[in-house]
Amino acid sequence: MKHLLPVVGLLFAVHIAQAQPEPGDVKTVQETAKGFMKQGDYSNAVLVLNRGLQNNADNLELQKDLAFAYYLNRDYVRGIEVAKKFPERQDADVHSFQLLGMLYKAIEEVKECEKMYKSALKKFPNSGTLYNEYGEMMWSKKDYSDAIKLWEKGIEADPSYSGNYYNAAKYYYFTPDKVWALVYGEVFVNLESYSKRTAEIKNILLDGYKKLFTDGNLTKDQDTKNEFVKAFLEIMKSQSSFIGANGVTAETLSAIRTKFILEWFSKNATRFPFRLYEYHQQLLKAGMFDAYNQWIFGTANNLPAYENWTKTHQEEYNKFDYFQHNRVFKLPAGQYYQTGK
Q1: Which of 70, 254, 300, 307 has the maximal Cβ count within 10 Å?
Q2: Residue 126 within any structural domain of the chain
């Protein structure tokens, strides 16, 4: 029995050694490197990834992680050395081009970055991510006209990607336009309902409705040649009497938008099918539209008053809150009506 013990120990050690992942195992390398990145130890992440690539030199996922680790470590030149090879690869994905764009933008290499985005969009013409980031690059160049064109293309090509709505809503808010900041802003808060950007866009939506009703002339300086815009403004104009002496509040907007949806579906739903307004109708039928309007406008207008509303309407609030957290909001293709860009 004593003679067997060393043999058993040796076999156990061999078994343990075989069970351990190889240093070049891709999944193990990625998990280790990501652990270092979460800790902010980017140098060790780079070290681990470079070692992993010694045994998996052509692995795209490890190369992307390495480029990102260099980016986080502000070693942009080395990051570009890794990522500039991505466009040549047949298996390059959207994220590959996105990483290269981030690195180029970090060193303000605008010419190469723009060239890369154009190439990327030929390969991925329906990528909302690429349109959005290309638009942000053009915005940084103060080329606002091309920036909004790119965000609009992103909305049309990839209607459920939130970033283009965010940027487009902000762009239109600072122009004389009274419609698209409201439309795009509300689509955005439904696609991205609980982020820091959501609170920012809720403020834009509230101020956008104030802007809409300020001078009483809703159609002034608006693109009424666009039939969607024209229909939107005509119905909103007929509801403006709800403003009264109370101004633009969550309560008045709930009343205005209730009437708007009822009239929209009696006049325009066939011409302009639109998922956002179908969602409004769904909420109305379920008795949750007031809570939805409070969630958007009450939080932006007066947070203590909104919190009090949730207490005095607890059942209504809980019903909507549960629904909001458990639904997926997506827009189908073909519901793009901004034809002016």
Answers
A1: 70
A2: no
